[in-house]
């Protein structure tokens, strides 16, 4: 029997999924990304060397593991080549281990232009996107005019026609500078030739892995509160980062998902605009930002920081059916005199304990906090729960109670080894053979 687990973000992204995925990868034959694009940035430290991956699953750092980019992902070929070349420079060869779905849509060079333009037009209501062209590429996909991987490898006349139509549509929007379709067409043909060895039927490949009893990990990018349907719309990304994205973005049935691990930080961060009910300012925010190195892996933007929000994680647990949480960056809270957990939002109409669809009440809402004592001892580098200061243990236990999900993994530092895997949790049953 294969064990196929989804690992996804339970907050607003940057929870440290890269590290958790990297740490779990030895249990899997393949790691598959199901949505997003190079807006993601997964930072992984291996023996002191820093790897930042945007598009390719971090499983690539493990020899023998196949990495899949699903149909739900939007791929900027230039960004992909850059990442492949960078990995090669660091001694990691992707050939024979990278499979891109032939149905994945292509981010065209002008999608980035459209992204920037759309943000400028929104003015103060801007989303704060990563300017990678993600939204416009998904717009073309949903508008049924997108160009897919298989189009780059197929009939040239059909590709020429598609490029002509797309460029015409682009020229209708950006009238000041007209784009010529032919150079873009030539560029895409060249890209296609380099991409060809990596492109194939990802859904079929995954089905065969299951038939062979091989384990697959589904790797989410961004996070539940950035999900196009379930996130803080419109301040979201343009894909389904939550669990439904696994089925649609990889062509796997729900029965092929055996477990869902949500990754949550011991506090909360977000980049870009939109509500963050527990947002802090001043020294405390600065302390979390510096302690957690809270700067975007893709854009370098400082992340907004706040206390742990149990309303958000409970909501994520509901949307995704979380079996467990991997709690990250606990060590960043070391030394704080007190720590807080948000359990509701006080609005003019009473206390909200469920995350609302309409964001307006959140604008003036006051978080309702439970305050717990902090800890003077270090959690940094701990590998056993019992080794944590008692106050840190209490914080985690309370966090589990109010979030409604057990913390199976606790990350206590940036390196692979700085992790607590708790026994008596579901993780053990998922990988009982391998962990024994
Ligand atoms: P887009 O995905 O570039 O369109 O950006 C939409 C929103 O998602 C913005 O608020 C971004 O900051 C946010 N976002 C996109 N990718 C990430 C990520 O990997 N981590 C955190 N936030 C992200």
Top keywords for this entry?
single chain, Adenylosuccinate Synthetase, Chain A, domain 1, Adenylosuccinate Synthetase, subunit A, domain 2, 2 domains, ten-stranded mixed sheet, 20% strand, globular, binds inosinic acid
What do you see in this structure?
The chain is globular, with a radius of gyration of 22 Å. A hairpin with a 7-residue loop joins strand 19 and strand 20 (419-421). The chain folds into two domains: 4-102 and 201-435, Adenylosuccinate Synthetase, subunit A, domain 1 (Adenylosuccinate Synthetase, Chain A, domain 1, 3-Layer(aba) Sandwich); 105-198, Orthogonal Bundle (Adenylosuccinate Synthetase, subunit A, domain 2). Helices cover 34% and strands 20% of the residues. Helix 6 packs across helix 7 (181-195). It has a ten-stranded mixed β-sheet, with helices on both faces. Strands 14, 16, 17 and 18 form a four-stranded mixed β-sheet that branches. Strands 3-4 form a two-stranded antiparallel sheet. It contains 15 helices and 20 strands. It is of the alpha/beta class and 436 residues long. Residues 13-14, 39-41, 127-130, 132, 134-135, 221-222, 226, 235, 237-238, 271-272 line the site of inosinic acid.
